[in-house]
Amino acid sequence: MQQYLDLLQNIIDKGIEKESGRANMPKVIGISNAIMKFNLSEGFPLLTTKKMYWKGIIHELLWMLSGDGLSEEERYDKMYENYFKKYKDEFKQQ
Questions:
Q1: 6 contacts: CB under 8 Å, gap ≥ 6
Q2: In the structure, how many helices (H) and strands (E) does the chain have?
Q3: Are 76 and 35 part of one and the same domain?
Q4: How far is 8 from 52, CA to CA, in rounded Å?
């Protein structure tokens, strides 16, 4: 977690402002060649405030390692189909 916080501080202190590359979007601040390394034996480095669908995460990691040549749209459909089924009631409440 400290690596992430240090990286954010570095972006704030030394980042370069540029156009976002999308129409009607605010400018972005970034740096080049930032690297974060994690020892996975100490845990999975997931930083989020949202619920995560672990089965989908593992599925995507295994897919990437397999070298499967599905298109992005096909991969999206397969990867998130179960996620949306599982959490559809929660999405409806929001």
A1: none
A2: 3, 2
A3: no
A4: 22
What is the pLDDT confidence band of residue 24, given thresholds at 50, 70 and 90?
confident
Full-model pTM = 0.45
Structural domain harbouring 94: 48-94
Q: Tell me what pLDDT residue 13 has.
A: 92
Q: If DSSP codes are grouped into helix, strand and coil, which group holds residue 16? A: strand
Same domain, 52 and 82: yes
In terms of Cβ atoms closer than 10 Å to its own Cβ (0-12, 13-18, 19+), residue 84 is exposed
Tell which wins on pLDDT, 34 or 87: 34
Residue 29 · residue 15 · CB < 8 Å:
yes
Residue of 73, 85, 79, 38 whose CA lies nearest to 58: 79
pLDDT at 93 over 60: no
Q: Evaluate whether 34 touches 7 at the Cβ level (below 8 Å).
A: yes
